[in-house]
Amino acid sequence: IIYFYITNKVLTRKNIRESIDEELVAHILGYIALSTKPQSSSGFLDRLYQKDTSSIAQQQMQEIEGYIQTEGKDVITQNYLYVQQVISKLFQGNDLKFNSHILGLDNTSHDCPRYYQAVFLAFYELIINEENEINDEVGLLGKLKNVGVNEIFKTTKGKTWTASKREEIIKDLKGLILRFFKPTVSKRQNTAWVTEIDNLLTISESEQALYDFKIGMMNLDGSDSFNDECLTQVLNTCVAINNIGKSARGSIVIGIADKSSDSKRVNELYGVNSIQKSGFDIVGIDNEAKIISGSIDKYLHKIKGKIDSNYSFDEKLKQMILKDIKVCKYDTNKHLIKIDIKSIGNVCGINNKFYLRQGPNTDHMETTDEIGALYTNYMCS
User: Fold this and answer.
1) pLDDT class of 68 with cuts at 50, 70, 90
2) Using N-to-C axis directions, what is the helix angle for 137-144 and 73-92, rounded to 10°?
3) What angle do CA 111, 115, 120 make, to 5 degrees?
4) Beta strand pairing status for 275-277 and 280-282?
5) For a Cys staple, 5 with which of 11, 195, 298, 369, CB 3.0–4.6 Å?
């Protein structure tokens, strides 16, 4: 990426030494992640990096963290690099330089990060958000030629690029180049998450003790209410997997039904269709997240809040669960919640109760002999 920046005079070597490339990426990602688009200024970045305590900064940080949890770091990186690759191929493949093509051969500027931001974000929305691909490179490059001196880019000078102006420019630029794109033949998906979930479903058949699946956290009685008992069962299972032994590693995935009757019930209530895979029905948590919290990131925040406040168990295990609970994007409208459990090196109880995962069951260890055997077996594992 840095090579492209320098050779295309998006940034200078001096800019790179001053970490302006990192600021450029941060401004682009901030725009992508936030629903209310921020201004492109050092003040915006200062608020984030210096942990500003103002309500606006806190709201922006919470939304960015929610976006990262919902989309996943790997997907965000993959999407960013994909768009960068498309832009690089478009210009370098046609023996053109971004700076001179966008601003004209007579310009004397040695950098043009603001123009690059606008082009990148217009491409990002067309390619990633709206699932298009370039259909006519010649026509597209023709329309982008000298676009930097076009009326679209008026009043882009100055240290601060206002949120409304940047959003307006990106919108106008998209309208200018839209006809040179076409819908992608096959939808792009996060193959890494799909592969991981598919492998987990296959492995779970032979290692049932280490994996568990829940269709969701919402009651299926039509009340549209959160099922606290289901969350309790999930956490009991987390503790039970930890208690298998010091080398125990497992996962719980929410949004997958192991009984077709449950997925049929969700379909009856909400019209949500499932994806069949390895004997499981992948339903997703999108519908219940929207009903209960309004969005996936707010839903995940709600679940984490309940875990942190309503359950008493080993703090090390609790913090690991809170850190490792994440959202996986399996399909366009199918997100899953995945909790990875890794033994913390000692037996744990939850709310003064002990559990052990045995096969597909989470068993309550009630008697003194059962609890004693649990400790003995754990230390010998």
Assistant:
1) confident
2) 90
3) 115
4) antiparallel
5) 11
Q: Indicate the pTM of the whole model.
A: 0.63
Count of alpha carbons within 13 angstroms of residue 359, beta-carbon side: 1
Both tokens of 341, joined, read 């459990």
Query: Rounded distance, CA 115 to CA 241, Å?
Result: 52
pLDDT in tens, 31-41: 998 888 877 76
pLDDT tens digit string along 279-316?
A: 899 999 999 999 999 989 889 999 999 999 999 999 99
Q: Is 270 exposed, middle or buried (0-12, 13-18, 19+ CB in 10 A)?
A: middle
Residue with tokens 């600021």: 23
What are φ and ψ of residue 31, in 5° steps? -65, -45
Strand 249-254 with 211-214, pairing: parallel
Helix (H), strand (E), coil (C) string for 276-318: EECCEEECCCHHHHHHHCCCHHHHHHHHHHHHHHHCCECHHHH
